[in-house]
Amino acid sequence: MDINSLSHKELTEVITSGAYDRELAAEADRVRRKYYGTDVYLRGLIEICNVCKNNCLYCGIRRDNAGLDRYRLTPENILACCEQGYGLGLRTFVLQGGEDPYYTDEMICGIVSEIKSHWPDCAVTLSLGEKERESYAAYRDAGADRYLLRHETANDEHYARLHPAEMSPIHRKNCLFTLKELGYQVGSGFMVGSPWQTAENLAEDLEFLRELKPDMIGIGPFVPHKDTPFRDFAGGTLELTLRMVSILRLMFPTALIPSTTALGTIHPQGREMGLKAGANVVMPNLSPVGVRKLYELYDNKICTGEEAAECLVCLRRRIKSAGYEAVVSRGDVYGYSSSSGNF
Ligand code: SAH
Q1: What local confidence, expressed as pLDDT, does residue 342 receive?
Q2: pLDDT band at 339 (very low <50, low <70, confident <90, very high)
Q3: Mean pLDDT along residues 68-93
């Protein structure tokens, strides 16, 4: 089966033709080993704030969640997290947060350039939501290497059911193409099992990714959050998420695909299974322990209690037990050339 020549209808059939599939996972694992061997890249995740001007219906840090204590890390806090992460061997830092206008472009650029000047051998990834081209360009000039922005769902009607009317699926998709033009390594992705999602929607997600050709693809199950309008919906399943990871690996042999925290939240061995199904990245949490619980995008999020060092020991052990090797390096996408800065 050449997955990349499948039509919309055929893709939908591959998605629905079973739950978790050992053979599909084994095939995905063969493909990942061909390009990446047993390497699993580590990314230190720093959740810089839980203040958000958006009101996504699924998300625990949405604007209207009045019961949540809000926090913002200072540039000094963020640099301290990087320093700790660097000491633990991490060479990629991911700065993720709500869309918070408190952090001006100038501040973000300042933080990025400080990180790059202290630790020039590290990659900086931003995941700060939708911005205008000028902002993305400024962050890039300041040294940002990568940007993560999940498209969430490629279907406009479905998007409109997951987001308030003021949010535009076209704007979000355009951001991704802009980021590519600016020379970022770009990551996109979607939730599996979000309310009203159909197999056809998932096929559309794959088709959108085919068009975007991202370097990184992050997916995880939708997990309901008790203080959101979606509190009573069922979450996405382990089986379908793993199946989608395998399909993504077969469609995008060289992509960087994380085995996500959400996957680890719905099953104790979720992340190990994600790696075996074709994922090749994990993201240990470097956020200060005091704020971890406040960055609760969904209920029961794991890794909110341990210090960074413990988190890393635990993840390294999990990677090994799944039959892979945690690798200390920037972990760029296969074929990336740092001299060109782009490819
Ligand atoms: N503000 C940034 C970061 C968002 S949080 C941005 O807009 O990109 C990172 C990801 O968490 C989101 O893209 C979304 O896919 C995921 N997420 C949010 N709420 C979730 C939930 N209830 N269940 C599972 N994943 C969720």
Answers
A1: 40
A2: low
A3: 98
CA 69 to centroid of ligand 1, rounded, Å: 18
The rounded Å distance from CA 2 to ligand 1 centre is 31
Instruction: Give yes or no for residue 297 CB within 6 A of ligand 1.
Output: yes
Give the mean pLDDT of the chain: 96
Tell me how far apart the alpha carbons of residues 67 and 48 are, in angstroms, rounded to a whole number: 19
DSSP 214-242: -SEEEEEE----TTSTTTTSPPPPHHHHH
Q: Is the CB of 96 under 6 A from ligand 1?
A: yes
* CATH architecture of residue range(s) 3-327: Alpha-Beta Barrel (3.20)
CB of 192 within 6 A of ligand 1: the answer is no
Q: Is 294 a residue whose pLDDT tops 90?
A: yes
Is the dihedral angle over the CA atoms 327, 331, 334, 336 positive or is it negative?
Answer: negative
* Ligand 1, atom 12, residue with closest C-alpha: 150
Q: Does pTM top 0.90 for this prediction?
A: yes
Q: Each residue of 206-249: pLDDT tens digit?
A: 999 999 999 999 999 999 999 999 999 999 999 999 999 999 99
Beta-strand runs (E) in 170-268: 185-192, 216-221
| 304 token code pair | 């909110």
CA-nearest residue for atom 24, ligand 1, is 222
